[in-house]
Specification:
Layout: E1 19-24, H1 32-48, E2 50-55, H2 57-60, H3 67-83, E3 92-95, H4 101-110, H5 115-119, H6 122-133, H7 145-160, E4 165-167, H8 173-190, E5 200-202, H9 234-243, H10 261-269, H11 272-284, H12 289-315, H13 321-347
Parallel strand pairs: 1-2, 2-3, 4-5
Helix pairs in contact: 3-12, 4-7, 4-13, 7-8, 9-12, 10-12
The chain binds adenosine-5'-diphosphate (ADP) and tryptophan.
GO molecular function, one term: tryptophan-tRNA ligase activity
Organism: Pseudonocardia thermophila
InterPro entries: aa-tRNA-synth_I_CS, aa-tRNA-synth_Ic, Rossmann-like_a/b/a_fold, Trp-tRNA-ligase, Trp-tRNA_synthetase
């Protein structure tokens, strides 16, 4: 016998606005690339959507093997996003691990997901390809089950919050498509009593072209060890800016601004008139890399100073950071329980 569960347009009483949800993995010190590619677009989205952000700590566990590191980076990610302008009174920010309903839903979803879908996941396939290229016989070497099931856990994060849109970078688009496919599989099997909302992918406009280069000219990324940390103290920031790779064009020679990492970073942070002026001076000749680096350092140092101060305040053990996250967790759980009770009823374990 089936129990009738009616589907509501919005789970929870909060709002009629559409819900956007995104997760951030706490795996390293936030850098300028994250600010440009993830944090700034997220700030804009918070004006349009009912925005939810969570620290994907259990996703990070597929690679992070130190409890201290996990604790530090989880707080550090939250503090960074708040310091950069996310207002926890307007948005919901929580830790994934504070919403245990996620893991219950993940099991249900894994029971409606074909193994073949996971075999085709980009991240998993990339490791197998790497093993093959290295001549390793067991192509699954180095793959833990968390990594293999990663897309299902991510689908659970998304579907549990009755999410409308998921703003992520291109590298995550397959995961959002999987979440939509998995929701459809669930709905096809159990949709008579309860349906999961099928989420949509939103690629932030910033993703279209703005990839910030790092100190070696490649994409700024933790994996390349070429990042400029967002909250480096002034002296360290100065040293890192000095290290940015440049060619050996002499001071007086004209330079192409658009092939200089220093300029491309400056462009994202300095006022438009400063950017225009520097661009002209580089093209005309007479501005050396040293001078350009000084301008970049001053710009970053001035812009980051108030954020750095706020970040450091939030990172203190006695700040209200943990309380804010706990409050976010309570809000998120209330929302999660409504979806999960629909799911439980639909599969018959209520
Ligand atoms: P990393 O490459 O350092 O490991 P992540 O993969 O953790 O960075 O990225 C987190 C978010 O920051 C993603 O949304 C990604 O699009 C954005 N991001 C990372 N590096 C850059 C960059 N160099 N330029 C623009 N956006 C970036
Ligand atoms: N996999 C995402 C990343 O590596 C993080 C993430 C986990 C996420 N769960 C999510 C993003 C749900 C959006 C929605 O960046």
């Amino acid at each position: 016998m089936t129990k009738a569960v009616t589907r509501r347009d919005t789970v929870g009483s909060v709002t009629q606005r559409k819900v956007s949800l995104t997760g951030i993995k706490p795996t390293g010190e936030p850098h300028l690339g994250n600010l440009i590619g993830a944090i700034r677009p997220a700030l804009q989205l918070a004006d349009t959507y009912e925005a939810m952000y969570f620290i994907a700590d259990y996703h990070a566990l597929t690679t992070v093997r130190s409890a201290d590191e996990m604790r530090h980076y989880s707080r550090s990610v939250a503090a960074t996003w708040i310091a950069a302008g996310l207002d926890t009174d307007r948005i919901t920010m929580y830790r994934q691990s504070d919403v245990p309903e996620t893991f219950e839903l993940a099991w249900v979803l894994s029971c409606v997901t074909g193994k073949g879908l996971m075999n085709r996941a980009h991240a998993y396939k990339a490791i197998r390809d790497r093993n093959a290229a290295a001549g390793i016989e067991d192509l699954d070497a180095g793959v833990n089950m968390g990594l293999y099931n990663y897309p299902i856990l991510m689908a659970a994060d998304i579907l549990l919050m009755d999410t409308d849109v998921v703003p992520v970078g291109k590298d995550q688009s397959q995961h959002v498509e999987y979440a939509a496919d998995i929701a459809k599989s669930f709905n096809a099997l159990f949709g008579e009593t309860f349906t999961l909302k099928v989420p949509e992918l939103v690629l932030p406009a910033a993703d279209a072209g703005k990839t910030l280069p790092g100190t070696d000219g490649r994409k700024m990324s933790k994996s390349y060890d070429n990042t400029i940390p967002l909250f480096a103290p002034s002296a360290q920031l100065k040293k890192i800016v000095r290290r940015i790779a440049t060619d050996s064009t002499p001071v007086e020679e004209p330079k192409d601004p658009d092939s200089s990492s220093v300029f491309l970073i400056l462009e994202q942070f300095a006022a438009p008139d400063v950017v225009a002026d520097v661009r002209e001076r580089l093209k005309a000749g007479g501005m050396g890399w040293g001078e350009l680096k000084n301008i970049l350092f001053e710009t970053l140092d001035t812009q980051m100073a108030p954020l750095r101060e706020r970040y450091e305040e939030l990172m203190r053990p006695d700040s209200d950071l943990d309380e804010r996250l706990a409050e976010g967790g309570v809000k998120a759980r209330a929302r999660a329980r409504e979806v999960l009770s629909g799911v439980r009823a639909a599969v018959g374990v209520d």
